[in-house]
Write a structure and sequence with these properties.
With 427 residues, this protein is α/β, with parallel strands linked by helices. The protein folds into 2 domains: 4-69 and 320-426, Alpha-Beta Complex (Aspartate Aminotransferase, domain 1); 71-317, Type I PLP-dependent aspartate aminotransferase-like (Major domain) (Aspartate Aminotransferase, domain 2), CATH 3.40.640. It has 15 helices and 14 strands. It has helices at residues 4-16, 71-81, 92-104, 117-132, 157-161, 172-175, 186-196, 221-232, 251-256, 282-285, 304-317, 322-343, 369-373, 377-389, 410-425; strands at 38-42, 45-48, 53-56, 110-114, 136-140, 178-181, 200-205, 235-239, 262-266, 276-280, 349-353, 356-360, 392-393, 402-403. It has a 7-stranded mixed sheet with strand order 4-10-9-8-7-5-6, with helices on both faces. The longest helix is centred in the last third of the chain and has 22 residues, at 322-343. It starts with a helix and ends with a helix. Bound molecules: ligand KE4. Residues 23, 25, 61, 116-118, 121, 144-146, 157-158, 206, 210-211, 239, 241-242, 266, 276, 400 line the site of ligand KE4.
C-alpha cells in the first residue's frame, strides 16, 4: 500500500507533536506501523493523502453515524458559519439543542453544553461531589471517560492500548478517591457499597463498554447498579458519550430502560465538531453555575457551528427506522465476519450493539474485561493490517469498539467480508 506522503507527514509530525498525533489512539502504537493521514472522507469511506480508499469502521470514533461529510450536515454548517463563528453570548441554536437532547433523553431535565466528552464527564463528577458533599467516585476497570484526572485509573481506550496502568501526573491523593470495580460483577458492586456506599458521591459507567473493545451488560446488571446508587444516595452517571444516540435514539438508557441521575454525551451531538454535554435531574443541574454554586464554564460551549452540525445529525438519525437499519447492518457485518473466521478455522467472536461492535480473537462469550484481555491481540494486530491492505480500516487497537454508520450499505459490507475471508486465511 503506497504511503509515501503519510510517511513524510508523520516524520514531520513526530518532531512537533507528541507521538506525531493529537490523540494517542491514532498513532497505531498497539497495532504497529505508522498511521495514514486522511485527505478527505465521504459516506462510509476515508481517503488518505496517498490516494488509498478505506471502508471506515471508526467514523471519527463515533460522531459519523450518518456517514462522513453528509450533505445535510455540511449545508447546516455552511449556512450557520456565514452568520459568525462564535458569539460568546447565548444564541438560539443552544436552546434548540437543549430542547432536542432533553426531548430525546427524558432523564435529562436540564443540560449543559461543553466542548468534549472529557469536559462532560469531569463536570458530571464535580456535580455529584458538589451535590452530595462526598468525595469518592466509582468507575469500572477498562471503562474510559476521557482524560480527567479522576478517571485515569485502570482506564480503557488509549490508556489500555498503551498499557499504561495509570497516568503519571495524577496525584495519589486524587487517584485514591477513585474506586474501581470489575464490570458485570454483581457481588463486587454490592460488597463495595455495603462497605463504603455512604462515602460514594458518584458511580460513572459506560452502560455498554466501548473502550475495552465492546462488552455488553449482563441481564439486570445496570438495574442492580441503579438500585445500589438509589439505596446509598450515590449519583448514578451513565457515560453515553459513545452509546448516546447510537445504540438507540435514546441511547443505552432507552435500550435497557434505566434512568440515570446524570448522563454525559458527545460525538454524535456535534456531528464531527468539538462538543460534549452533561445533563440529568433538575435538582442536580440547578446547582451548576450560575444558577448554583458548582462552577463549570467554557468559551466555546454551545458554539453555533457545532450546534448546527449536531442538530443536522440528530435530524438525520431521528428518521423512522434509522436505528433498526443500523442494527441490521451491524448484525450482517458481524455474522459475516464470524462465518468467515469459522471457514478459516480461526477462534473468533464478536459482540454487538446497534451501530457498534467488538472483534475478539478467542471463543465467546466475552462478558468481562478479563475475557476481553484474554483475546489474542497479536492475531488481531495481524488481522488489522491485513484488512487495511485490502481497503478496510478497523479501530487500530484490540481495545476499541468498531462503529457502523447509515452509509455502510451492502457494497461496503460485501467488500469488508471479501477482505476478511482473505485476511483470515493468512493469519
Ligand atoms: P473526548 O474528550 O475524547 O471527546 O471524550 C472522552 C470520552 C468519554 N467517554 C467515553 C465513553 C468515550 O468513549 C470517550 C472518548 N472515546 C475515545 C474512543 N475510545 C476517543 C478517541 C480518542 O481518544 O482519540
Amino acid at each position: 500500500m503506497k504511503n509515501d506522503r503519510s510517511h513524510d507527514l508523520f516524520t514531520r509530525a513526530l518532531e512537533l507533536i507528541p507521538g506525531g498525533v493529537n490523540s494517542p489512539v491514532r498513532a497505531f502504537k498497539s497495532v504497529g506501523g505508522e498511521p495514514f493521514f486522511a485527505a478527505r472522507a465521504e459516506g462510509a469511506y476515508l481517503f488518505d493523502v496517498d490516494g488509498n480508499r478505506f471502508v471506515d469502521y471508526v467514523g471519527s470514533w463515533g460522531p459519523m453515524i450518518a456517514g462522513h461529510a453528509h450533505p445535510q450536515v455540511l449545508d447546516a454548517v455552511a449556512r450557520t458559519m456565514r452568520d459568525g463563528l462564535s458569539f460568546g453570548v447565548p444564541s438560539a441554536l443552544e436552546v434548540t439543542m437543549a430542547e432536542a437532547i432533553t426531548q430525546i433523553m427524558p432523564s435529562c431535565e436540564m443540560v449543559r453544553m461543553v466542548n468534549s466528552g472529557t469536559e462532560a464527564t469531569l463536570s458530571a463528577i464535580r456535580v455529584a461531589r458538589g451535590a452530595t458533599g462526598r468525595t469518592r467516585i466509582v468507575k469500572f476497570e477498562g471503562c474510559y471517560h476521557g482524560h480527567g484526572d479522576s478517571f485515569l485509573v485502570k482506564a480503557g481506550s488509549g490508556v489500555m492500548t498503551l498499557g499504561l496502568p495509570n497516568s503519571p501526573g495524577v496525584p495519589a491523593a486524587l487517584a485514591d478517591l477513585t474506586l474501581t470495580l470489575p464490570y458485570n460483577d454483581f457481588d463486587a458492586a454490592t460488597k463495595l457499597f455495603d462497605e463504603v456506599g455512604g462515602e460514594i458521591a458518584g458511580l460513572i459507567i459506560e452502560p455498554i463498554v466501548g473502550n475495552a473493545n465492546c462488552i455488553l451488560p449482563r441481564d439486570g446488571y445496570l438495574q442492580h447498579l441503579r438500585e445500589l446508587c438509589t439505596r446509598h444516595g450515590t449519583v448514578l452517571i451513565f457515560d453515553e458519550v459513545m452509546t448516546g444516540f447510537r445504540v438507540a435514539l435514546g441511547g443505552a438508557q432507552q435500550l435497557y430502560g434505566i434512568t440515570p441521575d446524570l448522563s454525559t454525551f458527545g460525538k454524535i451531538i456535534g456531528g464531527g465538531m468539538p462538543v460534549g454535554a452533561y445533563g440529568g435531574r433538575r435538582d442536580l443541574m440547578a446547582q451548576v453555575a450560575p444558577s448554583g454554586p458548582i462552577y463549570q464554564a467554557g468559551t466555546l460551549s454551545g458554539n453555533p457551528v457545532a450546534m448546527a452540525a449536531g442538530l443536522a445529525t440528530l435530524d438525520l438519525i431521528r428518521a423512522p427506522g434509522f436505528h433498526a437499519a443500523l442494527e441490521r447492518g451491524t448484525h450482517r457485518l458481524c455474522d459475516g465476519l464470524e462465518a468467515a473466521a469459522r471457514e478459516a478455522g480461526i477462534a473468533f467472536t464478536t459482540t454487538r450493539a446497534p451501530g457498534m461492535f467488538g472483534l475478539y480473537f478467542r471463543e465467546g462469550p466475552v462478558k468481562t474485561f478479563e475475557d476481553a484481555k484474554a483475546s489474542d491481540t497479536a492475531r488481531f494486530n495481524r488481522f488489522f493490517h491485513a484488512m487495511l491492505e485490502r481497503g478496510v480500516y478497523l479501530a487500530p487497537s484490540a481495545f476499541e469498539a468498531g462503529f457502523m454508520s447509515s452509509a455502510h450499505g451492502d457494497a461496503e459490507i460485501a467488500l469488508t467480508l471479501a477482505a476478511a475471508r482473505e485476511a483470515f486465511t493468512n493469519l
